[in-house]
Request: fold
Amino acid sequence: MALPQTAPSATTYGVLRRNLRWIVAGMLCLVTIINYIDRQTLSVIKPILANPKMVRYVPGVGFERQDDKGAAVAIEDKKLNAEAQRDARSHPNVWRDTDGFGMTDQQYSYVTFTFLFAYVIAQALSGILMDKMGTRIGFAVIFTWWSIATICHRFSTHIVPVQGQILATLFVSFAFWRAMLGLGEAGNWPGAIKSISEWFPAKERGFATGVFNMGSSTGAIIAPGLVTWIYLTYGWRNVFVLAGACGFIWLVGWLLFYRLPRQHSLITQAELTYIESGQESTAREERTEKLPWFRLLRYRQVWGILIPRLLSEPVWWFYLLWLPGYLVQARGMSLSKMAIGAMVPYITADLGCLIGGGTSSLLIRHGWTVNKARKTVMVASAFLMPCALFIFTAKSPWTAVALISLATFAHQSWSTNMLILPADLFPQRVVASVTGIGGVSIIASAAAQLSIGYAIAHFSYAPVFTVAGLLHPMAAIMMLILLGRIRHTEIED
Reply:
């Protein structure tokens, strides 16, 4: 709906009314926080689920667990987290329920694989959904889906062996609900990038993307402490209920507030003019049909986004899904120390979002081309990532946390600029689809989960950190080779 030509002067409105686009960016940041809290619940409680269900401490002998027939079997101290050890020691010779079920690293890798495999499928499909339904309704659909899937983790069941056959196990139930979660959560990024392209001129998209992408790190900051507190207070099953239910207030606000700039009743004429002055013709966009994503694969720029993401994103997913378990099981942290140690890398990741996106936007404001600004920040960020090579040799767990924090900072600086490339390169009508195609790169992250689980179970974390330190420089080189010059690409209808 066009605005009246007699719209009042922008100076008569308050700061928020004159800057609706930043309210949109804030709402996208908030939904991304919720997204990451929901996905982080399982990784935070992994050390708890890894405990054998029933354990006891026998003075002079050590810890024991019950096998499937109820017989006592010796167990190494490192197979129990600090809280389970302390509880068993305080009740010697008494079987104690740890609230776990002995989930192995290999089983956990299967669960994370199903989540990411479903995420891969949904990435491309959700981009199409956003382009077809629009960001307002598209976000409502995917948000409701993933919230319900999170809550349903609470009802995962563990059916014990019957006549020698295991009909189901708790980790299989987890795998199913994680797949359902992945189908919904994947749409957050295509939807957010499309919203940014609708509401921001090119010169502000880098910083705006940094603002919304900061939600991923902020959610990862909040999750360890929040999930640990809910677990200690209400048990692990209710962690999923509370995490899944808390976001519906956002959904109401989104449906009430979000509209396209030209359709928004609260936008000022000055802000609308400012937004559209840095975008391609909205009139042309409105009368041009969407393109199927497979036709977009003909464009070299799409591959210049996809291949670097294939190489770099497994590193982020490794830190995201395995960090709490690493700090508890490999570094011997208690749950309370883990909650702190797992927060720090995502505080620095938040800084990476803001500094990475803000720096490229600042350089553009000072006369740099989009091509030079984005590539400079991305290459510099990528070549900070080899700090991971020193993590597994660090003597102190807090030194390891510091090195991981540098890696997460660098990755998010890289990722923020990588995420905005579809909006820099393509018209609005295909931005979500291109973002979804780039998100298919998570197939590498899914496959990596199985390799990570195997490496940790049979060797250690050392080979994983080694590979994590080398992938981003390789991704940067491929980006420079494949992407070409960053400039607006005309799409043939």
User: Anything to note?
Assistant: The CA atoms of residues 28 and 399 lie 33 Å apart.
